[in-house]
Amino acid sequence: RKEVEQDPGPFNVPEGATVAFNCTYSNSASQSFFWYRQDCRKEPKLLMSVYSSGNEDGRFTAQLNRASQYISLLIRDSKLSDSATYLCVVISSGSARQLTFGSGTQLTVLP
Amino acid sequence: GAGVSQSPSNKVTEKGKDVELRCDPISGHTALYWYRQSLGQGLEFLIYFQGNSAPDKSGLPSDRFSAERTGGSVSTLTIQRTQQEDSAVYLCASTSEGTGPGYEQYFGPGTRLTVT
User: Fold this and answer.
1) Banded pLDDT at B1 (limits 50, 70, 90)
2) Shortest CB distance from B43 goes to which of A32, A42, A101?
3) DSSP of B19-84, one letter per residue?
4) Of A49, A95, A103, which has the smallest distance from its Cβ to B56's Cβ?
5) Structure-model confidence comparison of residues B110 and B98, the more confident one
6) Which of A21, A44, B45, B79 is the most exposed place for a label (fewest CB within 10 A)?
């Protein structure tokens, strides 16, 4: 089983739709969680951190469920510019601090 | 300010040749990571440098891969005797761990390596 798993998609949604992605992680000792966004043929960029109590940034809401070991990202009122691959990132304790990236979920917002 | 830079942006090499990829992290960032990303795949961790500590090499796929970081700044990733399966985008990231909220990884634009 992969340490971090995501539904690869693709998710094709119309503009204005609400879309949600889930990401599961296997290491119960994982400490920190993030969502990154990667545009086609570009480098990943931090979208938002995920806090235990859940957090919102504009149209984006991130949630963490430690008991079930998953995090989620909700995008409301999706825009064409939201089209990208969304990468779930988990930091686990270990001999060195490592980030483990999920394979990403591809989102295409259609006009 | 200046972000993470990587060179070359593209590299085409023949199978069996050695290649060196360079990463210039953001000034003052103590941690530096190398990843590779194959087409349509997620990021695969390769190696991690943090300050003067011994690097975490646990992600290097074979002994043909090595990396060093000189003076706590610039890093080079060397791939010896390249194979076609080494073809990928090699991404470098730096972070200011320990100096603030940390953990946000700032990525360079990557080096696209093609082994023919």
Assistant:
1) low
2) A101
3) EEEEEEPPTT--EEEEEEE-TT--EEEEEEEETTSPPB-TT--STTEEEEEGGGS-EEEEE-S--G
4) A95
5) B110
6) B45
